[in-house]
Write a structure and sequence with these properties.
It is found in: Cell membrane. The structure is a single chain. The protein has about 425 residues and is an all-alpha fold. Helix content is about 75%, strand content about 0%. It has 14 helices and no strands. The protein has helices at about 25-40, 45-50, 55-85, 85-105, 110-140, 145-170, 175-195, 215-220, 225-255, 260-285, 290-305, 315-345, 350-375, 380-395. The longest helix has about 30 residues, at about 225-255.
Length: about 425
Amino acid sequence: MRLLRSPFGPRPGRTANEPRLSRDVYVLGVIAFFVMVGFGVVVPVLPVYVKSFGVGNLEIGAVVSAFALMRFVASPVCGKLIDWAGERTILAVGIGIVAVSSGLVGIAGNYPQLLLLRGAGGIGSAMFTVAAMTLLLRTTAPGIRGRAVGFYQGGFLIGGMAGPALGGLLATISLTAPFFFYAGTLAVAGLIGLVLLQPATRAGVGATGAAAPLLPLRAVLRDPRFRAACLANFSQGWSSFGVRGALVPVLVVEVLKGPSAWTGIAFAIAAVAQTLALAPASKFVDTVGRKPAIIGAFLVAAVTITAIPFAPNIVILTVLLSVYGVAAAFMGTAPAASVGDAAGTAGGRPVAIFSMFSDFGAIVGPLVAGLLADTVSYPAAFLLGGLLFVATSLYALRMPAGLPAQSAPEPPAAPVTEPLDR
């Protein structure tokens, strides 16, 4: 019986020495699916649940912001923890923190408890995401990093599409049921990570047992590939949460005069477009290059997001959001692969810094975009997001051309190394 080949796997005609996706990459994709299914279940219910405590819209926004703020604050510590204890341990602990805090949210007795628990969940989320991306980049050869990131993000996207439908069903049982379901899916994800992920070894140790010197963090920070990736992550955090996520639902209701259900349908179609584009985008990043992927995708996203407030009807808006989704497939894979190219043996701290840029954009973006929409206009809010995308494309011109060396990563385990997951 002939097995189906993964669209993210090796190209046809692959030679015996050509690198392929590691087992850890596939495991991380499965973990991402379970995490995002649960997250997708909670997101539609969370504002209504917070409202049930007798608070206003400001307090609802504070609960959402607390999660992102604590992710941002915790990320620098996550990099050091990963270098000390290994990716698998920090990933499992982070998922455990989110699982416990989410379950406790379902039995919170008052609003302050709810706010603190969501903040604690943000700390666990930072630990998980930084550890997972560090492990993915460390165990993947440079020539297939784009496909590895694409497979991982595919797990998030598929889970994110399934989650809201389940959330609506669970909400008919009770407003707290989605939080317990989320805790359950996280428990499954953490167990999968502990059982199936390879134990980490000390960074930079080769087959001879001799420790290779770690790449200094300051060298990574000076690398234009890393700087371009961080700017890309910041502009995505700003535009995806501050412009697209926060303003498009309002635009549908107030400008297009449509029901809020239109937003969910348009976002779902855009998510399908992004998922279908992940495989070709990942292959493009690995075969053509990170630089052209970043320049082209961010320019397309700039034009698209600037045009969104001028959409005359929901059909045109859905088309624009779908084009943005296709660009997002490139925008998600190319910067992450660039971080792996630049960071090398620098450990978890570069990935933590990379993650912080996205979180900072997600914190500041909604505030600035909302202020511009209220005081100037909706087009002005969207235009600022587009300008950040253009700035990313222009800075990416400084990146070196070509592809990284098609070499395999350091062996994830050597007989003489000491395991870090204790």
